[in-house]
Amino acid sequence: MKKLTLISGVVSSIIVLIGVLFKIMHWPGAGVALTVGIVIFAAVYSLLLFIDKQKLATTKTQKFSNVFVMLAMVLISVGLLFKMQHWPGAGVVIYLSNAALLVLIPIIFIKASKETETVKKLNFYNESIVIILLLSFSLFLLFI
Predict the structure, then answer these.
(1) Over the stretch 1-16, which tens digit does the pLDDT of each residue have?
(2) What is the 3-state secondary structure (H, E, C) of the chain?
(3) How far is it, in rounded angstroms, from Cα 33 to Cα 86?
């Protein structure tokens, strides 16, 4: 299962990067590549990653956190796809992804406070800082 997760993540990333390159260069096929890549990422990779992480989760906090990580991954990628393709509903999806990120930040702080190892605690705090930056960037893109 982990190999399939890795392969789907790499394939979706490559297809999205090709789609972005095509979109920047205004070449035909950009929309198709972006749509296919993000659908593979949102539907296949995030689901497989969620299943792998749920198998390793031991506490309710970890399981709850995994749900919101998957939800945020799907909503952010779909929201960005809608925004890049100028499809209606992009703002709503981005608002929902921001809400998922807002719920995820306290969950990560709770996980960090329960951690005894200082390196893992620092990693959780770094994750929360990155999520806050992602949330800030997402809100910035929403109001452009």
Answers:
(1) 789 999 999 999 999 9
(2) CHHHHHHHHHHHHHHHHHHHHHHHHCCCCHHHHHHHHHHHHHHHHHHHHHHHHHHHCCCHHHHHHHHHHHHHHHHHHHHHHHHHHCCCCHHHHHHHHHHHHHHHHHHHHHHHHHCCCHHHHHHHHHHHHHHHHHHHHHHHHHCC
(3) 15
User: For the segment 14-60, what is each residue's pLDDT rounded down to a tens digit?
Assistant: 999 999 999 999 999 999 999 999 999 999 999 999 999 899 888 88
CB-CB contact of 30 with 22 (8 Å): yes
Q: What amino acid is encoded at 60 in this protein?
A: K
Q: What is the largest CA-CA distance in the chain?
A: 53
Give me the residue label for tokens 């969950």.
107
| Rounded Cα–Cα distance for residues 110 and 122 (Å) | 13
